[in-house]
Amino acid sequence: MAGSPIRHSLSPRLHNAAFASWGLDWASVAFEVPAGQGRALVEAVATLGLPGLSVTMPLKEEVAHACDRLSPVAERLQAVNCLVHRDGQVVGENTDGDGLLRALAAEHGFHPRGRRCLVLGAGGAARAVIEALGRAGAEEVLVVARRPDAAARAASLAGPAGRPGRAEEAAGADLVVQATPLGMAGGGQERAFPLDPELLGPGHLAVDLVYHPLRTPWLAAVAARGAATANGLGMLVHQAALALEHWTGRPAPLDALWAGLRRPGSDDRGTPSASSPGTGEPVA
Ligand SMILES: NC(=O)c1ccc[n+]([C@@H]2O[C@H](COP(=O)([O-])OP(=O)(O)OC[C@H]3O[C@@H](n4cnc5c(N)ncnc54)[C@H](OP(=O)(O)O)[C@@H]3O)[C@@H](O)[C@H]2O)c1
């Protein structure tokens, strides 16, 4: 795992839980690697002969420019969250969007094909989700972001289904994905709502990619109105599962990953207790 700040990353915990469950003598550790070192990082994977590495902010974009090859998804996003060392090449993958779709399928039986989706935000996480929703056959992928140019660029990742939208259009969506940092503990906007909860209710599935806290005030307000809800832990677990599958070729032991997140005193879905004292936000 590499990125900055990285000390409170939950990913090594997930990876190591899988390795232990498989009886595999591998270890995942967090490396503090600052912006500007993406190329050196890719070269280090090749030099050290590592099977793979997870990559997080602020390196996802610069690493994409340094890989020997990109998967089609990473190519479209120009962002990499997983390096795979295969046949002498370092290949860049991006498992974030498919991680969320797998989580929604597993936890809510939700499949995007033919469904109307709305994404709040146009940053890295939003873009990965928008691309995955478009590829999975969503009928419509609306992008609501404070910068219209960013919304339009992000929406184009969904192909013909994608277009910039207005917040009020959430009422007609099946799925709403909140992909801004609003609500994140320690971010200074803990109580800010990214969307009026009154627009949602029974029949909506609302997902907040934030997982610290596990239930943001916005997610709580939306749940109180009768919408089905999910936090960001499912995406975190399933993007790690996909990375593990790329590295080993084995189906990931999901129960072990969920158990790996749990700490004494946590709730039954696992509280990410490795929160950063600086930002309060654990990072993938
Ligand atoms: N569950 C997971 O596995 C997972 C994975 C990745 C990220 N996340 C979470 O998803 C969130 C976004 O991460 P990211 O990597 O996509 O960040 P990012 O690249 O910095 O993008 C953040 C997006 O939110 C927008 N935004 C920020 N503050 C806002 C505000 N006050 N009002 C309206 N929009 C605002 C930004 O708009 P501008 O571009 O105009 O600033 C941008 O579109 C974070 O909370 C992160 O922890 C979760």
UniProtKB/TrEMBL annotation:
<feature type="domain" description="SDH C-terminal">
    <location>
        <begin position="232"/>
        <end position="257"/>
    </location>
</feature>
<feature type="binding site">
    <location>
        <position position="81"/>
    </location>
    <ligand>
        <name>shikimate</name>
    </ligand>
</feature>
<comment type="subunit">
    <text>Homodimer.</text>
</comment>
<feature type="binding site">
    <location>
        <position position="96"/>
    </location>
    <ligand>
        <name>shikimate</name>
    </ligand>
</feature>
<dbReference type="InterPro" id="IPR028939">
    <property type="entry name" value="P5C_Rdtase_cat_N"/>
</dbReference>
<feature type="binding site">
    <location>
        <position position="232"/>
    </location>
    <ligand>
        <name>NADP(+)</name>
    </ligand>
</feature>
<dbReference type="InterPro" id="IPR046346">
    <property type="entry name" value="Aminoacid_DH-like_N_sf"/>
</dbReference>
<dbReference type="Pfam" id="PF08501">
    <property type="entry name" value="Shikimate_dh_N"/>
</dbReference>
<keyword id="KW-0057">Aromatic amino acid biosynthesis</keyword>
<protein>
    <recommendedName>
        <fullName>Shikimate dehydrogenase (NADP(+))</fullName>
        <ecNumber>1.1.1.25</ecNumber>
    </recommendedName>
</protein>
<feature type="binding site">
    <location>
        <begin position="9"/>
        <end position="11"/>
    </location>
    <ligand>
        <name>shikimate</name>
    </ligand>
</feature>
<feature type="domain" description="Pyrroline-5-carboxylate reductase catalytic N-terminal">
    <location>
        <begin position="119"/>
        <end position="184"/>
    </location>
</feature>
<keyword id="KW-0560">Oxidoreductase</keyword>
<comment type="function">
    <text>Involved in the biosynthesis of the chorismate, which leads to the biosynthesis of aromatic amino acids. Catalyzes the reversible NADPH linked reduction of 3-dehydroshikimate (DHSA) to yield shikimate (SA).</text>
</comment>
<dbReference type="InterPro" id="IPR013708">
    <property type="entry name" value="Shikimate_DH-bd_N"/>
</dbReference>
<keyword id="KW-0028">Amino-acid biosynthesis</keyword>
<dbReference type="Pfam" id="PF18317">
    <property type="entry name" value="SDH_C"/>
</dbReference>
<feature type="binding site">
    <location>
        <position position="56"/>
    </location>
    <ligand>
        <name>shikimate</name>
    </ligand>
</feature>
<feature type="binding site">
    <location>
        <position position="239"/>
    </location>
    <ligand>
        <name>shikimate</name>
    </ligand>
</feature>
<feature type="active site" description="Proton acceptor">
    <location>
        <position position="60"/>
    </location>
</feature>
<keyword id="KW-0521">NADP</keyword>
<comment type="pathway">
    <text>Metabolic intermediate biosynthesis; chorismate biosynthesis; chorismate from D-erythrose 4-phosphate and phosphoenolpyruvate: step 4/7.</text>
</comment>
<dbReference type="InterPro" id="IPR036291">
    <property type="entry name" value="NAD(P)-bd_dom_sf"/>
</dbReference>
<dbReference type="Pfam" id="PF03807">
    <property type="entry name" value="F420_oxidored"/>
</dbReference>
<dbReference type="InterPro" id="IPR041121">
    <property type="entry name" value="SDH_C"/>
</dbReference>
<feature type="binding site">
    <location>
        <position position="209"/>
    </location>
    <ligand>
        <name>NADP(+)</name>
    </ligand>
</feature>
<feature type="binding site">
    <location>
        <position position="211"/>
    </location>
    <ligand>
        <name>shikimate</name>
    </ligand>
</feature>
<comment type="similarity">
    <text>Belongs to the shikimate dehydrogenase family.</text>
</comment>
<feature type="binding site">
    <location>
        <begin position="121"/>
        <end position="125"/>
    </location>
    <ligand>
        <name>NADP(+)</name>
    </ligand>
</feature>
<feature type="region of interest" description="Disordered">
    <location>
        <begin position="260"/>
        <end position="284"/>
    </location>
</feature>
<feature type="domain" description="Shikimate dehydrogenase substrate binding N-terminal">
    <location>
        <begin position="2"/>
        <end position="83"/>
    </location>
</feature>
<dbReference type="InterPro" id="IPR022893">
    <property type="entry name" value="Shikimate_DH_fam"/>
</dbReference>
